[in-house]
Amino acid sequence: MRPMNEKQPFVYELHAQDGAARRGVFTTPHGPIAMPAFAPVGTQATVKTLTPDELHSLDVDIILSNTYHLHLRPGEDIIAELGGLHQFMAWDGPILTDSGGFQVFSLAHKRSLDEDGITFRSHIDGSRHRFTPEAVIRIEELLGADIIMPLDICPTPDNRREVERAVELTNAWAVRAKQAHSRADQALFGIVQGGIFPDLRRQAAEFLTALDFPGYAIGGLSVGETKEEMYATLSAVVPLLPADKPRYLMGVGTPEDILEAVARGVDLFDCVLPTRVARNGGLLTREGRINIRNARFARDPNPIEPGCTCYTCQRFSRAYLRHLFKAGEILGLRLATIHNIHFMEQLMKDIRTAIQEGRFYQFKDEFLSRYRISDQEARHKNKLAYRQRRGLQVR
Amino acid sequence: MRPMNEKQPFVYELHAQDGAARRGVFTTPHGPIAMPAFAPVGTQATVKTLTPDELHSLDVDIILSNTYHLHLRPGEDIIAELGGLHQFMAWDGPILTDSGGFQVFSLAHKRSLDEDGITFRSHIDGSRHRFTPEAVIRIEELLGADIIMPLDICPTPDNRREVERAVELTNAWAVRAKQAHSRADQALFGIVQGGIFPDLRRQAAEFLTALDFPGYAIGGLSVGETKEEMYATLSAVVPLLPADKPRYLMGVGTPEDILEAVARGVDLFDCVLPTRVARNGGLLTREGRINIRNARFARDPNPIEPGCTCYTCQRFSRAYLRHLFKAGEILGLRLATIHNIHFMEQLMKDIRTAIQEGRFYQFKDEFLSRYRISDQEARHKNKLAYRQRRGLQVR
């Protein structure tokens, strides 16, 4: 690890570019992040089923954790008392914490939004809480992640009135968050909202870049719009962001979405997909996703993916994994998670190498010609369910 | 690993003796077992939550797996097709499979016992199965464990009529199992039943030792009798077993029971206790068992047991473990399991060293003076529930 510049701990160094796709490194107080990067999600201060040492051995550079969940349980004060999130969970690499805004709308009860913040009840015990831009920064400073997000509003992407209001509030709250933020060892990113409307995205991007954040997140995508709308929005918004700062596409995603976003200049991703589908028996392969519970694997002596170098594939057969899932054994969840995170990190490594060698678009085409995109229908259903659950009410 | 004697793969070498307590090594085709030994239980071809590599790094010499469970799911034919249990689960150390008789009585439905075997329905799908001494040996030969058990009957320990019948059947079935068994790379042990009745234990021990098994199990203990009855039974039965063969106390146990049994000459143990209580947040320490869910650990920065060298204690605080349990995170189950197996293996190591150095009884007294024996009441309730569940009917 290179010695950190104490005055400027967060620097994005561009190493190579291939069209809009960028390979670079973002330095943080807990080490560099090779970009484009994928951050596995550790909602409750643990990437589900894995130890920090396993994350390191899977070449994970950065993980994401959730402000909403950690605020409710165990509470930011306890984590601060135990030395902060890194020490609490024994992960010494970079961490990013989200703002909790998304979870308030997808999980919390009786939420109500006003100019100043959001009031809600915990989905765990019904207790009453209030998130303001300042309160969220206070929580995130106590948690102590390397990259932190300001409170934002993620609207229904094609409801113009709702999106206008979300951009207005998110922009205003970004100013307040920046003022409230005091830890120099944390990078507070700006979040560009704007749904699928190019003019609103531009308005948000121009407002936020004028505030000079050390990095920019693109929020409000992969939440109900079509893939085409998401890609078009990325094509419109990424060129508006400064080239010397990392661009983070929140909550994305699938291998195909990551490839399309990298092709448009995105540097950082996070998503529950590889870990969540793993726990349902969904395993990522170069040909697409398979479900290991399928009866056709009952006597299959092969690894999940022949040639895969992950621990699971080096050691265990599909037949054994299927048995573990059918028998409800926790080891199955672990081994599937290891394979899927390895798959994602390998994909990011391949992407970085391809950019370096000036053949990213060829790599992308080859990958996508082989990879069967799965569950379009299930994906659509999930998104609709999310919209209904959210019931975003803007006063 | 020493080169195996192909003609005599199973040899018990006595290395030291301290009173009745013995330190020795039992050789198997998959490596030597340092005794006294504790075998963690891997019911469904996995020691719950752990990988085989973790078991090795915890210095586990031998694991137990369950014939009843593996027969029902995935089935012995599939396991044989995948190369046997060792290859199936990727564990290259010694394995012991039980006979399944105990699970038939504690788990299966509509069981009926006759001279020739037991008919029952699967607790998973209601399918009909029949275990005879020969059928069980066939299953165990397909699984391919190093040490295998013949079908036996585990009676209510203080019901003389039931115990008499159990000894009679178990002895007769031992003869049939021995005749049916053909794999020279497996050691078929004899199982001594007899409840708490010294004369019936003697009858069983004399009958079985005459058959010259490569090892002897003591069955039907820790199933409802008092601790005093168990220890008295061990004092009566162990001296009847040959000194040049290992003695295996089935389904035991707690640290205190293991110490008392070693003091009476027992060499091998298995029990779900350390792994099962771990998954409920019960952690073994030199002072006794603690429950990590307790509110007093919410801000506790210490490891489970200061000075413990296990991975969990080297890396994580009680506060973090409590958080994982309260949040329902799988990593908590893993870390607790690692600690408890480490505790048991460390106890066995300490026992072996103490025997070697001629201070076993001093070690035992010191350990027990510090270790608070827990859950006597819970233990009693569990045993009563077991008796009721079994409803053993001997025709």
Q: Which helices and strands occur, and which strands form pairs?
A:
Two copies of one chain form a homodimer.
Chain A: E1 12-18, E2 21-28, E3 31-35, E4 37-40, H1 52-57, E5 63-65, H2 67-72, H3 76-81, H4 85-89, E6 95-97, H5 101-106, E7 109-114, E8 117-121, E9 128-131, H6 133-143, E10 147-148, H7 160-180, E11 187-188, E12 190-192, H8 198-209, E13 216-218, H9 227-237, E14 247-249, H10 255-263, E15 268-271, H11 273-279, E16 282-285, E17 288-291, H12 311-315, H13 318-326, H14 330-356, H15 360-370, H16 376-390
Parallel strand pairs in A: 4-15, 5-6, 6-10, 10-11, 12-13, 13-14, 14-15
Antiparallel strand pairs in A: 1-2, 2-3, 7-8, 8-9, 16-17
Helix pairs in contact in A: 6-7, 7-8, 10-15, 11-14, 13-14, 14-15
Model description:
The structure is a homodimer of 395-residue chains. Chain A is α/β, with parallel strands linked by helices and 395 residues long. The first copy, chain A, has 16 helices and 17 strands. A five-stranded parallel sheet of chain A has the order 4-15-14-13-12. In chain A, strands 5-6-10-11 form a four-stranded parallel sheet. A three-stranded antiparallel sheet of chain A has the order 1-2-3. The longest helix of chain A is centred in the last third of the chain and has 27 residues, at 330-356. The model of chain A has no long low-confidence stretch (mean pLDDT 94). The A-B interface holds A 44-46, 48-53, 69, 73-74, 78, 81-83, 88-90, 298-299, 301, 311, 315-317, 319-320, 322-324, 326-327, 329-331, 333-335 and B 44-46, 48-52, 69, 73-74, 78, 81-83, 88-90, 298-299, 301, 311, 315-317, 319-320, 322-324, 326-327, 329-331, 333-335.
